[in-house]
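Q: Okay, next protein. This is Transglutaminase domain-containing protein from Streptomyces liliifuscus. I've checked the sequence twice, so it should be correct. Can you predict the 3D structure?
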Amino acid sequence: MDSHDFHLKQSPYSDPGAVPADLPADPRELASLVRNLLIHREEGGHFGYAMPEERRHEDAEARYVSAILRILRERRPAPLTEHRELDERFAGTCRDFALLMCAFLRATGTPARVRCGFATYFEDGTSPVTHGDHWVTEYRLPDGGWRLADAQVADGAHDVLFDPLDVPRDRFLVAGAGWRACRAGDADPEAFGVPLPTGDLRGLWFVRCNVVRDLAALGRVEVLPWDAWGLAAKDEPEVTADDLALLDEVAAVTAAEAVSAEEIRRLFADPRLAVPAEITSYTTYLGVRQIRLPESLRG
C-alpha cells in the first residue's frame, strides 16, 4: 500500500460508517462542517456557553468517529450538514476536531492523517508554555504536497492570522519538529506542554510523549491525547541513550513533510513505539485507567 492509499483508507478510529450522501468534498467546507458539529470542552466560555459538566468529563473519552456521530445523532436526529446549536454539539478536544476532519476527508477521496504536536496560536502569554499541546489534520493536495488544517479555528471561531486550511508549520510544530528543536538547543523544552491552573504539564518528557503519539497517528492509530505506552509511559530517569537515539530517528522521519508509509510501518514495529494490548489512559477528569485494546486498534 503506497502513501496515497495508506492515508486514504479509514482506520478503526476514523471509520464513520455510513457517510451522509450530501457530505461536501471540498476541504474548506468540511472544516466548517466539523466546526458546526463540535465544540471544544474547554471553550464554552469563549462562546458564552455553560458547558454541562458531564459532557466535559465524558464526551472526549469517545475513541471512535462512529461514537462521536452516534452521540451527535442522539442529541439531534437531523442531517449532520444542518446548523447545530452549541448544546447539540459533541464536546470534544482538539484531537476530535482533527480526527473527524480526517475521517470526512478520507470518506470524500482526500488522503489525510491526524498530527499531534504543538500550537503557538492559543497561548495568551500568561504561562511559560508558548507551544501548547494540540492536534490538527494534514491532508494531501492534488500535486502530492501536504497541508496542515485546523478545523477548530475554522469560520473565525478563534482569532488567527492565517488560513485554517493552510496552517504555517512554524505556528503548528508536529511533535518531531518540536523534539528536534529542543534536542538541538533551539527551543526550551519547558515552553512545550499544557498550561493548567493546577500546575503546568511541560518539559522534554511531554514532547517525547507527543512524538510517540504522532507516530501512532501517522500509522492510523489515532489514540486519545492522554493515552500512554512504551516510550510515552517511561519516567524521564528511565529513558536510555538508545531510547533517545530511537526518538531522534522517529523525529527526523515524522518532521519531514514527505513521510512515507513504509518508514512509518518500520518505526511503528519497534516494541517501544508500537501500541500494545494494554495502555494507560491518564484521563483529565475520570482518573487513571488501564485500557485493553483489541488487536484491530493497535495498528
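A: Here is a summary of the prediction. DSSP finds nine helices and eleven strands in the chain. Residues 3-14+93-297 form one domain.
Q: Noted. On to the next one.
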